[in-house]
Design a protein that fits this description.
Blueprint: E1 17-20, E2 29-35, E3 37-40, E4 51-53, E5 58-59, E6 64-65, E7 70-76, H1 82-94, H2 99-128, H3 133-147, H4 150-169, H5 177-181, E8 188-192, H6 193-197, E9 203-209, H7 215-226, H8 232-243, E10 252-257, E11 261-268, E12 271-278, H9 280-285, H10 294-302, E13 306-312, E14 315-323, H11 328-339, E15 343-347, H12 352-362, E16 366-368
Parallel strand pairs: 8-15, 15-16
Antiparallel strand pairs: 1-7, 2-5, 2-7, 3-4, 3-6, 9-14, 10-11, 11-12, 12-13, 13-14
Helix pairs in contact: 2-3, 2-4, 7-8
Length: 371
Amino acid sequence: NEQEIIVPIEEVEKGDILSVRPGERIALDGIIVEGQSSIDESAITGESLPVEKHVGDRVTGATMNTVGAFRFRATAVGEETTLAKIIALVEEAQATKAPMQALADKISAVFVPIVIGIALFTFVVWMALGQPFTFALRLAISVLVISCPCALGLATPVVVMVATGKAAENGLLIKSAEALERLHEIQVLALDKTGTITEGHPRMTDLFLFDDLDVQQILWLAASLEAQSEQPLAQAVVEEAKERSIFPKPVELFSAIPGKGVSARFVQEEKSYALVAGNVRMMQETGIGVDAFLSVAEKMADEGKTPIYFAVDGKIAAVFGIADVIKPSSRIAIHAISTRGITPLMLTGDTERTAKAIARDLNVEQFAAGL
């Protein structure tokens, strides 16, 4: 009834409208009915950069809202949510038996009763022949000890347990016993991009300055503006400045427009600067011309980087290239995989253009994007 109340997640029903504020985790799957935002979906898709969402777009439980506020209608609750299905899938897979273990269990089911039968037959025969009870029992036990297939039933589960335990120590989650047994047959190895092949968080890789502007001054102004934003692209600019021992200063009249960019006024002694940072739409809305830089930005985009325009007093001062960089160890690992005759396949929630650039850089021929 147009009132916001807090309820336990178990009481939420399909069709309920939920309110999400900046910085909150999204509770359930649903569709946005009011507002817009950028959502960090890395928990589900692995994509390193937040995805813009508007009215009519789907949101997924367990993902994180960043700067905007919105309301969404719940479309899945409880065990129907994406996260619950993923958890159920993993639990189900871990409960499976290896094919060899299943075979051993089948053999044991027939073999054990037969062995017990032979032992009993041995006992009865020697008793019938007039031998003492202890003698007959000793021979019956001998048949059991020699014939009982203990190793058949125990060896495979022990090996699986030790192997999965050692793998877990090295950061590997083996989904099922069958997967472990069939590991040596692998022909294609699928690798997630974000956080596996790459570092998992954006970093500044390029800095293109207009004319002969001072790098230190531009980075100082840009970092001071972006320090007010929680957006990962903004934090990449701040981190780059700090690595160069440039530390941001407070700004005035800070404003953030979700999915576009930020603006503020920077006052230093008697000088005042109007600062704007963001994408092409942000620059167009504030009346700042970017035509001279479009080719630079396009080149960055083709290399899988996100271009960020930075303007001072209504004029473009720089274009920053932000990217999720490849781990040095990934190049070595992918080369080692390829030399063993295994085909690496890169999977990512990122865009086709970004995936293509990373794949080209790593000499990976096969990839799938937008997953």
